[in-house]
Here is the input.
Amino acid sequence: MKASEVREKYLKFFESKGHKRISPSPVIPENDPTTLFTSSGMQQLVPYLMGEPHPLGKRLTDSQPLFRAHGANSDDVEEVGDNRHLTFFEMLGNWSLGDYFKKEQLSWLFEFLTSKDEGLGLDPSKLYISVFEGNEFIGKDDESIEIWKSIFSKAGIKAEEGERIFTYPAKKNWWSRSGTPDEMPVGEIGGPDSEVFLDFGEDLRLHEKSSWKKEKCHPNCDCGRFMEIGNSVFMQYKKVDDGKLEELPNKNVDFGGGLERLTAAANSDPDVFKIDIFWPTIEKVQEVTGKSYEGNEKPMRIIADHMRAANFLASEGIIPSNKLQGYVLRRLIRRAALKMRNLKSDFSADDFAGISKEKSVLEEVERFKKTIEGGLKEASKIEEINGKKAFDLYQTYGFPLELTIEIFSEKGQEIDREEFKKEFEKHKEKSRTASAGMFKGGLADHSVETTKLHTATHLLHKSLRKVLGEHVSQKGSNITVERLRFDFSHDKKMTDGEIKKVEDMMNEQIGKALPVSFEIMTLDEARKSGALAFFGEKYGDKVKVYTIGDPDGDWFSKEVCGGPHVENTSELGHVRIIKEEAAGAGIRRIYAKLA
Ligand SMILES: [Zn+2]
Ligand SMILES: [Zn+2]
Here is the structure.
């Protein structure tokens, strides 16, 4: 089965259960400075899971491309190389926003996975389940266990705990944005989750061949025998004041399953790199290196994953660089190039010509080739290598540690990895403070400061139109925790008087303590109501309109926008324009801060 068929089957299946398809959010978030990439399917649904009504109703489904470059506890890029880990992938998702719960979710999921006609036709006897085992806050998720038992029993399978259904602690089977129940702040929602695993069978002897062979194999074993193909999160609780968890009146379901893994499962092959998304790339690599995939899986998988991700990022307009998304792109290309070098002892852009059509990707390969040549020269001057010198090579020439190790092991020299790591940590600490919170990933962190600045952006937009004229329209926006940046169409430099006028107008609205609220309407109604619509978040033909002021009376600004915003302009305090400059032909840029 092709990945595209699996995607369509899934969406159709959940549509048949009353779900509406929503469009995925962009992988590179607009107007969200706190995350580099969209890294979870529910990111765009957070306000609705917290209780806001969604324009398309209570049952939603989508396929969301995701990018994971920095995991919470590990580096996702370094994890690639086994049979299932990816940096760029697609997450199939379905949600219940205070509608159906465990029984429907688990039954439908099982039906989709096992049905031969409407689903993937997986053999139910190969499915295994994980459930939350309970802790001092919340008991075991017996409800899910009972539902799973009855589902399996209808399929003629006896599902006992410890044999088919396995319980795990909160670290594995609990979801909240902040982690396990004890880590949840007051007001945070969370709940147990239940994962489905596919057993590729004992015959492959994956466990016996792995480094875990001395322990007993189980669904969460990392040997590769079991593959997690979907997770149903049950948002059931809210943390309350005295450290307890309370049942939510409206319980949500959030399901996510990796498209690539589900496709591999449908094809009964534990290797996701054998699916149609990756295999053509692997074939190309075999061709240019003259080596076969068998025996060279790891480097070839890394090339296939990284190049797919790199091609995607490049097609989104990201350029390899030393900053933010550009840095991730550079790292992916360079790692892929190094793997190519491992396979054929040299590499050039030609090796990648059949794998990437992106000019910037191929240019980066060539640039890296030059770096390596320069670094090799420098490395040959080093008589005795150590961790510090290895880090200098890395820092100055972009020379990866694995390459340095390789070169010096030829000379019979070893590198103290710990020493390198120490240097690296020192450096990371520095860059971490420089880009505070930037790599946190996970859910869009709508921090208080960025939310305020977002509302200030709406005030600025409207004030500019009032002071400069109706030709002003938003051309771009970027918010960090410290300031807002706003690009707009206007063909000359603003005078000091104009800047003062705009600033005063914004502060006047803040002083009036205007309420901020939103309504859902059609784009047409939005335009008729006077709302500005540029970068609107669209759901089918419905949009969200944020009003500053009284929506039916005296309002200052109406704008199509996904939010979030503060509830009242008085929360902003005082706004100050700190800079006005050109940002391209006919485009001006303003920086502003709150104090
Ligand atoms: Zn195992
Ligand atoms: Zn907005």
Remarks:
- Residues 454, 458, 559, 561 surround zinc ion (ligand 2) (CB under 6 Å).
- The longest helix spans residues 359-381.
- Confidence is low (pLDDT under 50) at residues 432-445.
